[in-house]
Predict the 3D structure of the following.
Amino acid sequence: VWVPVYASQTKVPAEFLWGKQSEFSRVSTWWAFNFVNNWMQLGYNKMLGDVQDARAKAQAEIFSVHEKIVAVAKRVPVKSLASYILTRGSSKIITELTDSWWSLSEKLIAKFSNGLITTGEEPGMRVGQGYPNWWLKAVGYTAWPPGPGPAVVTA
């Protein structure tokens, strides 16, 4: 997800400054995205739609807010005030994106845990993911149960 970091910004939020891959942090934007990426490895094709929807929504909101921030900053005649507006706007976008990505990670954990897809608490809202049909056919599972095998001789 693209986020605006403007050339005249005076600082970036803490969420963008956490650079430790060896130490988990729920404050870090990097860790929020890395966590979702790692969780997706459990069932990439099943989670991809949820993540793409979240990304598209976040990106559309960010582009909209970015245009407004830039428009306001351009109208401000005092350079230091314009820089303040850009800094605050970018920081707010980054903080909200980080929070929303952690929220997405929690939704993915709840929906795609224990080998199931859980969409609610009512009957039928928790189903097994199963294997794709192409795989079942490739391994001969469509012929289950198998026919009689060789005779077993016991002494």
